Amino acid sequence: MAHHLLKFNLQPKVIGEWQPIVASQAFDTFYGVFVKFVKHELPTEDFKLHTYYCMYKIQNFKGAISMGFHSEPDFRTTPGFGEDGEPYDFSFRIKLSPFNRDWETKIIKHHSENDLSIPNKIFESLVDIKNPPSFMYNSNEPDQSLYLHPDQYKRDGDSYLKIEYKSTSEECNNNLNIENEDLVGRHPFICDMTRSITR
């Protein structure tokens, strides 16, 4: 089965339990991102939106680099299309960075015109991964960097070898301009699990 067809089950009605929304890797670290629905307030005459109180957690499973939240996760109710061209109904926006110990958020309030627990709605987790701090890594000057990005360079003595990627899928190569792509956090063809379906 193609990995993009796999989905997490997301249950917004389940309060107080961590639920997976991302499984991926960056900087040679395999990690998962989880959401916990803490509270749901129904619309009222004065405030006509659903209010969801959520917390987010990242678990680093394998790898030497700790990934953490670069900023608060966001939530969008606007439908869209994922990188694979498949449509989604709602999206989580998650910003991560390496060498970061911010592994759990405080309670964050999200508003929605729609009840998120309607069955068979698709959530896409859109993950933005930042480069290491500039004092550690400069992608244009690897010889001046304290850290080498494992998906961008290999060291060979005093030489630095830039890594390039090419997929065996022509369609995938046509959708990604490798020469102009600033590889951030991982190589471009990594298999992510970022899609959930409500149950």
Question: Which descriptors would you attach to this protein?
Answer:
4-stranded antiparallel β-sheet; mainly beta; 199 residues; 2 domains; 14 strands
Describe this structure in words.
The protein has about 200 residues and is mostly beta strands. It has two domains: about 1-130; about 140-180, no CATH class. Helix content is about 5%, strand content about 40%. It has one helix spanning about 170-175, and strands at about 10, 20-25, 30-40, 50-60, 65-70, 75, 80, 85-90, 90-100, 110, 120-130, 155, 160, 195-199. The strands form four sheets. Strands 1, 5, 6, 9, 11 and 14 form a six-stranded mixed β-sheet that branches. It has a four-stranded antiparallel β-sheet with strand order 2-3-4-10, with no helix packed on it. Strands 7-8 form a two-stranded antiparallel sheet. Strand 7 (about 80) and strand 8 form a beta hairpin. The longest helix has 5 residues, at about 170-175. It is elongated, with a radius of gyration of 19 Å. The two termini are about 20 Å apart. Residues about 175-185 have low confidence and may be disordered.
